[in-house]
Amino acid sequence: MSAQRMALKQPESFAFSAAAEKEIDMWVAKYPADRQRSALIPALWIAQKDAGGWLPEVTMRTVADKLGMAYIRVYEVATFYTMYSLAPVGEHFIQLCGTTPCWLRGSDDLKAVMQRRVGGQNTISADGKLSWLEVECLGACSNAPMIQISNADGDHYYEDLTAESFDALLDKLVAGEKPAQGPQNTRHTSEPEGGATVLIDASIYKQGRKLTKLPNQVKKLEIVRHAGSAKAAPVKASSAKSTKPKAAAKPKAVETATPKAQSAAKPAPKVLYTDGPTEGTPDDLKVIKGIGPVFERELNEKGIYYYRQIGAWKAADVKMVEAEALSRFPGRIKRDEWVKQAKVLAKSAAKAG
Ligand code: FES
């Protein structure tokens, strides 16, 4: 069982860094004005990172003030979840799973290693490098026993451990090395030791989850710029195709025309092909309810960077995205109204721009 106590020695003040505040604002914006406290869990997580890996009381109060919550409500959450540390932690903070599957597979041996090297839970090793806490199931039971290590490199799982491999892992961390994450035996993920025995036909993985085509990819996006207009308007590939050769033949004339000449000129379409987020800073797709960091990364990898791209999806496009990227979550795009949200966001982005 975990045992957390607030540190006796507490800092007197705390202020969010600009980056942390921006990230918290992003989470807050996902909820209606009278439900901003719903962002408490990510806000505390970001604040913890911002405060150096733990949550001083003053930091919790700062989060409470930001979300308009009573301090006690924030304490209730922060003291319940072991993902929050209420006292300083070592450079490498180890959360050691002691729940039944890990216990059956030897978590007591791992605990003994920590006790030998560091001492009890919530103490920091003399060199400041290590501290640990026993926690409940971290959701990687098929790779029991396992731990999570939080440090400057992030939060990562190390699995299929023995006392020996755990000791060696700690040696590497203390020496400043970066040991490989994941299983610490011969397994690649959670297949049987010695290799997979089913689903071994390579052909079934040909397509996998690899996204091959999404609608409105930047790579394929054709943007028509009209002389005299500073704004770019995305158009369908089919409607722009016929203008491409003509526009490509006279690019300079359009770019060098004076504003006066441009406004006087009859709008001459020029088609641009972009292959990255070249239309300014990419939009924060996570603002769209239902899109988290993983979906955003997958969309970015396929050239979707802007609200206007998603806002232009038609029913067939949504169907394609669901088939290729979101088969695990059927109906999600429609249910969360990505397209509707994206249209509104694109409009305000265009106004702001
Ligand atoms: S029991 Fe340890 S990860 Fe689930």
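^ FE2/S2 (inorganic) cluster complex. Residues 90 and 276 are 40 Å apart (CA to CA). The longest strand covers residues 92-97.
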